[in-house]
Amino acid sequence: MKQKLKKLIWDAVKTAYEDNALPSSEFPDVEIEEPKVEKHGDFSTNIAMKMASIQKMSPRKISEIIIDHISDPDNLLSGTDIAGPGFINFFINESSWHPVLRQIHEAGNEFGASDIGRGKRIQVEFVSSNPTGPLHVGHGRGASVGDSTANILSFCGYDVQKEYYINDSGRQIHTLGQSVLFRYREQLGEDVEFPEECYQGDYIRELAEEVRQREGDALMSSGEEAAIEYCARYASKKIIEGIKIDLDSFGVRFNRWFSEQSLYDSGKVDADIKELQDKGMIYKEDGALWFKTTEYGDEKDRVVVRNNGQTTYFASDIAYHKDKYDRGYEKVIDVWGADHHGYIPRMTAAIEASGRKKDQFHVILVQLVNLLRDGEPVAMSTRAGEFVTLDDVIREVGKDAARFIFLTRHHESPLDFDLELARKKTNDNPVYYVQYVHARISSIIKKAGERGINHIAWDDQGVAMLREPEEIRLIKNMARYPEVVRNSAEFMEPHRITFFLRNLASAFHTYYNKHRVLEDDEVLCRGRLYLILTIKNVIHNGLTLLGVSAPEKM
RNA sequence: GCGCCUGUAGCUCAGCUGGAUAGAGCAACGGACUUCUAAUCCGUAGGCCGCAGGUUCGAAUCCUGCCAGGCGUACCA
Questions:
Q1: Would you kindly state where each structural domain of chain A is located, as residue ranges?
Q2: Is residue A63's beta carbon less than 7 angstroms from any atom in nucleic acid strand B?
Q3: A158 vs A117, A120, A486, A487, CA distance in Å?
Q4: For chain A, what percent of residues have pLDDT higher than 90?
Q5: I need a labelling partner for A538 at 20 to 30 A (CA). Which of A169, A252, A311, A328 fits?
Q6: What is the percent of chain A where pLDDT is above 70?
Q7: How high is the pLDDT of residue A162?
């Protein structure tokens, strides 16, 4: 619709120039907006104001000239208006909206999809929680944002891969091994003092128990390091399995699980450090190796190999990201917790140093989640073992409510997640509001079937009867969907879909309460059934992008 | 100190990347079910868009400076 209008205006401007009504041939882009106030029409443009200084004429005069030169062969417009400082307002004919319904219906699950990605290969890495404990709510938010963003990008024609990076190497894995070993010894009757820096959660005890059942007391006699190594391997493997299960029940599936350890095993970390050394990007100071990240805008240089010979997390991250690009991704997106934001400049620096462009890397920072129960904060700390796991949340409030609520805010603003609220099946809970539309429509369609209407299809006469303001409003609303999806992809902001759905749901509920679909007038009934079928279609599409189900019945 | 994020209705947040009279949901108050699901709807009330300057036809939106909160600022991850 917008495109059609844009063309009308553009043609009018050109014609006006050819008729010598406008002195200059220099025209700005046609920008079309949707006014907030209905009185201002369906669309408006500010083009006259933009042209004023170039044409050396008053905006209102230019508006008049443009309107005079508009030709509207398809009878799209029911009226135009000049308002305020020189806005041109356009009123669209009711009947011009009707074909939108057909587009939606014919596109089906593809309605809203586009090809703006042009098959560009893009990778989204998210969650990537360390395998030292189960996922908690914060990871849930990262999972929701990452997964939906990937879905949306894919819907917009990008070739998207979802990946999880497993930090199965380094100090914290060692600590994990220690933690399990301590519990293991404890269980075998040894009097041990459990160190504070170890992981305190009950899951460590369970893992130790499993180790004991498999190995008996064999680890008591093997060397300590070997025992820790064994426990670390076993525990991280089990934890990752648990994480996979949790994510699966959260509706998140990765294309690939990438092991940090594999970068060491294949020698890639060492090779990349060597390569950077050869390029002169690395120097030695105080016994450590430093990467000159300051040359790419970081505030200080960063250590890649410590003076004890151990590589830092940064070192493997450099190798990991290099590997991503080597695998052919043109763009790499990382979803991180906001507490890692200080890490962005050095990562960007490393990527630039390896010859990639800055804009080939993008970090989505997700702010922290404050978990509440009835308005009271719930304390959480992985180390102290006090946390509510993602699994707990899914069990308590359900996957759909959790995923939806995580996407009810811009990802850069902190989110309060109230367990009691999320569990309530009331109108406090936005997910039901949207799902309810789908269920209601399904119910009506079912009822129509009972009355012998089994096939809902485009019907000229029926659709032509959709003239109620609420009906036109619904169609206009849905017509915006493709643009919302595109913007959502472009800005990587899945919450835009959430807000769109709430809006559409609201418009439907209003309509539902005011008008009956199953009217005695058969023609009208056909038209309305077609309308709600397309609404169901759009709600379904949107919820799918968010990873939320669209129930037939509630 | 420096850097990033956030300040919009009593509360939780949107605001289409500069547009016209700033919008929702909760909470408050008053209404609507013998009719397609009341997990719904309708109405009322509620605002110096953190503060102060600047940019221009026009600012919640862009720039600068303050103020407040969160996070970061490791040879941790």
A1: 2-92, 171-249, 370-423, 427-545
A2: no
A3: 4, 5, 12, 14
A4: 60
A5: A252
A6: 97
A7: 97
**Residue-level pLDDT at A535:** 96
Q: Tell me the two tokens of residue A400.
A: 């759909």
Sign of the C-alpha dihedral computed for residues A207, A210, A215 and A218 taken in this order? positive
pTM for this prediction: 0.93
Does residue A549 approach strand B to less than 7 Å at its CB? no
Identify whether the C-beta of residue A143 lies closer than 8 Å to the C-beta of residue A248.
Answer: no
CATH number of A427-545: 1.10.730.10
Bases of strand B lying below 7 A from some protein CB: 2-7, 12-17, 19-27, 32, 35-42, 57, 70-77
A387-396: pLDDT as tens digits? 678 998 898 8
Dihedral sign for Cα atoms in the order A349, A355, A359, A360: negative
- Please tell me the distance from the alpha carbon of residue A161 to that of residue A482, in angstroms, as a whole number: 22
Structure tokens belonging to residue A103:
């587009």
Looking across all nucleic acid strands, the nucleotide with the smallest C1' to CA distance from residue A53 is: B57
Measured over the CA atoms of residue A211, residue A215, residue A217 and residue A218, the dihedral's sign is negative
pLDDT band at A427 (very low <50, low <70, confident <90, very high): low
Helix ranges (H only) for A257-407 are: 260-265, 268-278, 313-326, 344-353, 390-397, 399-406
Q: Which residue has the tokens 């099946």?
A: A425
- Nearest alpha-carbon partner for A474 in A444, A510, A518: A510
Say if strands A369-373 and A376-377 run parallel, antiparallel, or are unpaired.
antiparallel
Is nucleic acid strand B under 7 Å from A428's C-beta? yes
Helix (H) or strand (E) holding A241: helix A224-249
* Contacting residues for A480 by C-beta, under 8 A, at least 6 apart: A34, A500
Q: Closest by alpha carbon to A176, among A134, A143, A216?
A: A134
Do A427-545 and A2-92 fall under one CATH topology?
no
pLDDT in the model for residue A383: 54
Give the per-residue pLDDT at A36: 77
pLDDT reading at A341 higher than 60: yes
CATH superfamily of A2-92: Arginyl tRNA synthetase N-terminal domain (3.30.1360.70)
Nucleotide B17's nearest residue (CA vs C1') is: A491
Residues, chain A, total?
Answer: 554
A436 touches strand B (CB under 7 A): yes
pLDDT of residue A385: 53
Q: What's the CA A414/C1' B69 distance, rounded, in angstroms? A: 12
Strand partners, A81: A89
A426 touches strand B (CB under 7 A): yes
Q: Smallest CA–C1' separation from A491: which nucleotide?
A: B17
Q: Is A518 exposed, middle or buried (0-12, 13-18, 19+ CB in 10 A)?
A: middle
Note whether ipTM > 0.95 here: no
SS3 A297: coil
- List of A residues 203-262 with CB within 7 A of strand B: none
pLDDT of residue A319: 95
Query: What is the number of alpha carbons within 13 Å of residue A230 lying toward its C-beta?
Result: 18
